[in-house]
Amino acid sequence: MKSFTLLLLATAVAVSLFAGCGAPLQACPKIGDKAPDFTLPGLDGKSISLSSFAGKPVIINTWSVSCIECKKEMPYFSDIGKQYGVQGLVILSVNTLDSTGTIKDFLTKNGYDFTTVIDLKNEIYKKFCCPKNADPNTFFIGTDGTIKSIKIGGFATKDDLVTEVKKIIQ
After folding, report:
1. Side-chain half-sphere of 28: how many Cα atoms within 13 Å?
2. Is residue 75 part of a domain?
3. Is position 46 within any domain?
4. Distance from C-alpha of 166 to C-alpha of 170, rounded to nearest angstrom
5. Which of 149, 107, 115 is nearest to 41 (CA)?
6. Residue whose C-alpha is closest to residue 116's, from 124, 7, 55
7. Is there a domain that residue 13 lies in?
8. Which among 24, 46, 66, 67 would be 20 to 30 A from 95, CA to CA?
């Protein structure tokens, strides 16, 4: 019996040591960390990378057409984009669920002109350690490329969004 217990313990230790070998664990980025780069297809099929906006303040916002909170805050992002766009603010809209046609129809119908990428493989969730399918998620990236603020869930008011935007606008 004692041999069996030792064998079981040795097996558990070996499994825990070798679990995940070959795939290093990724630390979840937090406020103050450099935002992880990603490249996703835009609505025109061309790739767009976060790094292509280096030196600019960027808001990354995940959403889907079926997300009620997402649709509620979209007008706030539209207004903010117009208000702070002259200061270089980029709103990078990351759709996590819908087809290109559905996204284009939704944006056109509502007059939104965000830079939009499609992330059907949930890369953004993995890179930023978001709860899967828990849109909206918003990340505020400063001109230095670091995360200045994170918001999980929707913004209740435009003023709440403005408060966060001011953290990344110089």
Report:
1. 8
2. yes
3. no
4. 8
5. 115
6. 124
7. no
8. 24
Residue type at 159?
A: D
CA quadruple 67, 71, 76, 79: dihedral sign: positive
List of residues 6+ apart from 113 with CB closer than 8 A = 78, 81, 107
Interatomic CA distance for residues 84 and 34, integer angstroms: 22
Strands 147-152 and 137-141: antiparallel
Output the six-digit token pair for 127. 């890179």
Domain count, the chain: 1
Joined tokens for residue 149: 């603020």
Which structural domain, as residue segments, surrounds residue 85?
63-170
Using CA atoms, how far apart are residues 87 and 114, in angstroms rounded to an integer? 16
**Is 29 within a domain?**
no
CA dist 137 and 162 (Å) reads: 16
Residue located via tokens 């041999």: 3
